[in-house]
Amino acid sequence: MSDTPVIGVLALQGDVREHLDALAAADAVARPVRRPDELAEVDGLVIPGGESTTISKLAVLFGLMEPLRARVRDGMPVYGTCAGMIMLADKILDPRSGQETLGGIDMIVRRNAFGRQNESFEAAVAVRGIEGDPVEGVFIRAPWVESVGARAEVLAEHDGHIVAVRQGTALATSFHPELTGDHRVHALFVDMVREKRTAGSL
Q1: Mean pLDDT, 10 residues at a time, over the chain (202 residues)?
Q2: Are 83 and 46 in contact (CB under 8 A)?
Q3: What CA–CA distance (Å, rounded) separates 73 from 13?
Q4: Is 41 a catalytic residue?
Q5: What does each C-alpha distance from 166 to 4, 72, 105, 140, 172 come to in angstroms?
Q6: Which residue of the set 51, 158, 178, 186 is catalytic?
Q7: Is 178 annotated as catalytic?
Q8: 18, 19, 51, 82: which one is catalytic?
Q9: Which residue among the candidates 18, 51, 158, 176 is catalytic per the annotation?
Q10: Which DSSP state fits 124?
Q11: Distances (CA, A) of 44 to 56, 142, 179
């Protein structure tokens, strides 16, 4: 078995190309995922930003919602940024009508908590598990985590709010590291995928 993990990027909406590039820079084979058969071929998955309600509806339309839930339940490593964080939350404080999530992280998330599109900003974020300087995070209509359960580990906070969380093989950030050229968060996720593959082959 090759040591290079195959990681998909959910290609329904959002910064798909940027995530593919960041994963490739972090020594993964990166592929877009739009169909259940493509999902079945990857070792891990990134859920990019965008509009969480739209991603939810498109995942149902493309027949991906239930296969995604099943893979996440079975422990497939998954990383969600911004809207992807909302998709991984077990609960949303203010969901729109018909909005569904995949779940996977015991957290309650507030949508658009950091403000509107024109209130987007960049900030240095110290992320537990990433050495060196803080990560430069891009916050675009970003959510924050209101609270986490006992199984979830807080990795970073900004301005008193939780912005990065990990639970087992699931990782989520409020911000977009794929837009900065700093691939350390993606490298952390690639390492998570690699560890899961190694454990599965023992």
Answers
A1: 87 94 97 97 96 91 96 97 96 81 95 84 96 95 95 96 98 96 96 90 58
A2: no
A3: 23
A4: no
A5: 22, 13, 7, 21, 6
A6: 178
A7: yes
A8: 82
A9: 176
A10: E
A11: 19, 23, 20
Structure tokens at 80: 């969600």
Strand partners, 161: 158
Give pTM, 2 decimals: 0.95
Q: What six digits make up the tokens of 102?
A: 């995949």
Residue with tokens 């900030």: 123
Q: Are 23 and 58 in contact (CB under 8 A)?
A: no
Residue that has been written with the tokens 């900004």 in this structure: 158
CA atoms 97, 142, 113, 68: torsion sign: positive
> Quick one: tokens of 111?
């949508």
How many other C-beta atoms lie within 10 A of the C-beta of residue 66? 12
Tell me whether residue 153 is one of the annotated catalytic residues.
no
